[in-house]
Amino acid sequence: MAVDNERTPMKAWLLLSILFLGYACSAADREIISLLVEPIKRDLSFSDTQIGLLQGVAFLAFYSIAGIPAGMLVDRRPRMKLLAVALSLWSFMTAFCGMARTFTLLFIARAGVGVGETFLSPAALSLISDVFPKRRHGFAIGIYVGGSLVGSSIAVGFGGLLYGWLAPRGAVNLPLLGHLEPWQMTFILVGLPGFLIAAAFLLTAEPPRLGAPSQPGSGGVREFYREHWRFISFHHAANGFTNLLAGGVTAWGASYLIRTFGSDVESVGPLLGFAFLIGGIAGMIGGGVLSDKLLRYGGSARLWMCGGCAALGALAALFLPSVDSVYAGAFLIGLIVMFGSVPYSVANAALQEIVPSGIRGTVSAIYYFTISVLGSIGPSAIAFVTDKVFADPARLSESLSIVVTTAFLVSMILYLLAIRPYRLVGQRGVV
């Protein structure tokens, strides 16, 4: 699986396909709760703030806390086996969300999903960097992270159809599990396919680690961050604000369409799923391909591209409260997803190109820890503005617009500030 051949080996593409499915499963299990907000609130009498905590803090805080130890394990242990165990864990905890009947149990279940998913991207980025050449990093990482939007589309699209099929049939009583409402059955059924993907990880051979033979360890990580701290500070913060707005849009996109336009879960699910899918493919994969082509102008072209897309995303978010149809609302969500998705492949590729092979898992985990800390604020920030500033659930569109526009603008500034230190890295011959 050497990466310097003219043609990328078929094994690399097969591995990327499995990683794509893993990320799709991850996103579906993570985001299915966003579609079920209204029935959960109705049956369990939760506030928007409690829902925001379940979508943001419960998942992302534990995702972040477990991230660095997970990255260190990725640098030291067989990555495919780690992924099989992690996927089994988060799939079980997704199904457990459907068995929970209190806020505390739902919080624990969401935290368990976060702990399991924290292994995925550090391992995946380490694997991709080992089996693909740099000239294809943007495209390959774009394919991988595109799985997240496919998974989100499955969560709100297929999840909406699944809930629409279950809802008219009402609650069911199952052996051992007892009384289950349609939204609880939706959680359980969405969680089950992950066990099949876990088996695929377990049966896939571990590729060799390529690059410098340096031993992984905290010393190498400290040296790396000490050398590149200026670029990394701006880069990580910029991606953190991108993650903040992405988490907010994903968490509240369905409720935005339902509350603003009087739609229902069954009709909003497929519509929003299509917007997530098309926007995500255009942003993550299309952006990755375009950034690979722009490398002829230097590695900093990736950062210029991220900054420009952030500016366009802010412009789109300004119009969220003013559109007059559910289709126009979904179109705007799709635009925001597209512009907000670009950094997940493009900025990520810029980072991976300067990271030594032996510490990629740990550096990727620190990166995801940083962006997840900021990302965890997104759902709760939107809920806070709705509950405390406007004190009116019907003004969710304005809360969403304020938070998303602000996050885009801050992200744009930080990407532009990251360009000069990244160019200095290039002058030292790293990129």
TrEMBL record:
It is found in: Membrane. Coiled coil: none annotated. The chain crosses the membrane at residues 51-70, 82-101, 107-129, 141-166, 186-205, 240-258, 270-291, 303-320, 326-346, 366-385, 400-418. InterPro entries: MFS (IPR011701), MFS_dom (IPR020846), MFS_spinster-like (IPR044770), MFS_trans_sf (IPR036259). Its main location: membrane. SUPFAM superfamilies: MFS general substrate transporter (SSF103473). PANTHER family: PROTEIN SPINSTER, SPINSTER. This is MFS transporter. It comes from Sphingomonas oligophenolica.
